[in-house]
Amino acid sequence: MNNQPVRLVFISIFSLSLWACAPKSLFYWGDYETSIYDRWIGIDNNLGEQHLQQTITNAEQSGRKVPPGLYADYGFMLYRRGNLDGAIAYFDKERKTFPESSLLMSKLIDKIHEKQKSPPAQDSQSTSEEGKKP
């Protein structure tokens, strides 16, 4: 008796069940690659920031994890724009989500706190003009 059709059906069912049970990606990448391209190659920071924000929003709304470094990347972007509190918040998110980044994120947060505590540097031009006043 030929068991060929039975084997074929069994192998097909087994293959489909393995495919259906395959895990989803560990992280939600969204438009992260696009945001990197836009910021570093395409030189469009606004569009890159929008892609990064959208990736974070979509991941958080769907309950998925962002890839390592994404929160830190967004925090660094906020830091460069002068939003120090936002940068601290996202560095802290990175530290909590990925404990292996704790040392670096803590150092960055400490540096920002130091910057916030120190008085802003005065213009050398404004101090030289003050010295000229009688």
Overview of the structural elements:
The chain has helices spanning 4-20, 32-40, 45-62, 70-81, 84-97, 102-117, 124-132. It is 71% helix and 0% strand. The chain has 134 residues and is mainly α. It is built from 7 helices and no strands. Among the domains are: 25-67; 68-117, no CATH class. Helix 3 (45-62) packs across helix 4 (70-81), helix 4 runs antiparallel to helix 5 and helix 5 (84-97) packs antiparallel against helix 6 (102-117). The radius of gyration is 25 Å and the shape is elongated.
The quaternary organization reads as single chain
Tertiary shape: elongated
> Which structural class best describes the helix and strand composition?
mainly alpha
Q: Which residues form runs of ≥5 with pLDDT under 50?
A: none
**What's the number of helices?**
7
Cα separation of the termini: 114 Å
How would you characterize the largest beta sheet? none
How would you state the average pLDDT, rounded? 82
- How big a fraction of the residues is strand? under 5%
Which bin fits the share of residues in helices? over 70%
Q: How many E-type strands?
A: 0
Whole-number radius of gyration?
25 Å
**SSE string, helices as H and strands as E:** HHHHHHH
State the gist of this model:
By secondary structure, the protein is mostly helical. Helices cover 71% and strands 0% of the residues.
